[in-house]
């Protein structure tokens, strides 16, 4: 296996995505929800609060939660959100239909996230990433939100840098997000064992491309979601087919 050739192609594909001009990001498939999540001018907190919701349910359902809250409040300014008590937020999350499978917990986390944005960032969530901060600092700031772990914090930083073209001082701390698709692709490409842990995949990506490990993230996710499926993979359609040791071409 030519590991360096595999790395180079994944990085090249990731770089194409990274260098593409800013475009409207479709997070949920619900247009108005995606408009809210893309509105970094007036509602940057929507993106942060959606990250907090991304837990134990499909991402599309999690990321639509801020919009569903905005529908119930008929507003989504940080001032309006800040006037809600923790009990108010739990009720908004739970009734009449739960917005999340853990509505009580997520109501508490949503409330906590709003309060942190108000108290630490003066109501402006964009302060988390404004001013070309080091990538490690951005990830640390996301980790300080209750309910956000390393995977989501890294994912958030990667989306900010790749999709919203937010400039950072560096990208060395933006790891690959080792979801089920990335893990499968790393295994089939022979970069890791097929049963490698998330930690092993993260460190392998760091070893392959230390200046920006997450550069390979969307390329691997795209491969896994489009061609390298758990069963009946479409190897001939995949742009990694000629380098993949398990290709069925």
Folded structure, characterized:
The protein is globular. It is built from 13 helices and no strands. Helix 2 (31-38) crosses helix 5. The model has no long low-confidence stretch (mean pLDDT 95). It has 249 residues and is mainly alpha-helical. The protein folds into 2 domains: 3-20 and 172-237, Endonuclease Iii, domain 2 (Orthogonal Bundle); 31-128, Orthogonal Bundle (Endonuclease III, domain 1).
Task: Map the helices and strands.
Blueprint: H1 3-19, H2 31-38, H3 44-53, H4 59-63, H5 65-73, H6 78-82, H7 86-94, H8 103-121, H9 135-143, H10 150-162, H11 180-188, H12 198-208, H13 217-226
The CATH architecture designation of the largest domain is: Orthogonal Bundle
**What's the alpha carbon Rg, rounded to whole Å?**
19 Å
Count of separate structural domains? 2
Q: What does the main sheet amount to?
A: none
**Beta-sheet strand percentage?**
under 5%
Number of separate helices: 13
Name of the CATH class of the largest domain: Mainly Alpha
Instruction: Assign an overall shape.
Output: globular
Mean of residue pLDDT values? 95
Uncertain stretches of 5 or more adjacent residues = none
Structural class: mainly alpha
CATH topology of the largest domain: Endonuclease III, domain 1
Q: How many β strands by DSSP?
A: 0
N-C termini distance: 16 Å
User: H/E order of the elements?
Assistant: HHHHHHHHHHHHH
Keywords summarizing the entry:
single chain, 249 residues, mainly alpha, Endonuclease Iii, domain 2, Endonuclease III, domain 1, 2 domains, 13 helices, globular
């Amino acid at each position: 296996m030519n590991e360096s050739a595999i790395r180079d192609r994944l990085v090249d594909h990731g770089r194409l995505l990274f260098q593409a001009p800013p475009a409207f990001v479709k997070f949920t498939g619900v247009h108005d929800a995606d408009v809210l999540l893309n509105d970094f001018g007036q509602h940057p907190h929507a993106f942060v609060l959606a990250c907090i919701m991304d837990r134990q349910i499909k991402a599309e359902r999690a990321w639509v939660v801020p919009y569903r809250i905005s529908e119930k409040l008929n507003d989504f300014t940080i001032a309006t959100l800040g006037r809600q008590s923790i009990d108010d937020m739990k009720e908004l999350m739970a009734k009449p239909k739960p917005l999340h499978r853990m509505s009580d917990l997520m109501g508490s986390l949503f409330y906590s996230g709003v309060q942190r944005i108000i108290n630490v960032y003066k109501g402006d969530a964009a302060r988390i990433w404004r001013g070309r901060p080091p990538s490690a600092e951005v990830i640390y700031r996301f980790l300080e939100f209750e309910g956000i772990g390393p995977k989501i914090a890294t994912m958030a930083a990667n989306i900010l840098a790749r999709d919203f073209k937010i400039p950072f001082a560096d990208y060395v701390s933006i790891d690959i997000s080792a979801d089920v698709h990335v893990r499968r692709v790393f295994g089939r490409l022979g970069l890791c064992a097929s049963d490698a842990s998330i930690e092993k995949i993260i460190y392998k990506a760091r070893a392959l491309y230390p200046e920006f490990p997450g550069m390979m993230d969307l390329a691997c996710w795209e491969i896994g979601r489009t061609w390298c499926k758990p069963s009946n993979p479409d190897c001939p359609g995949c742009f990694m087919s000629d380098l993949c040791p398990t290709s069925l071409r």
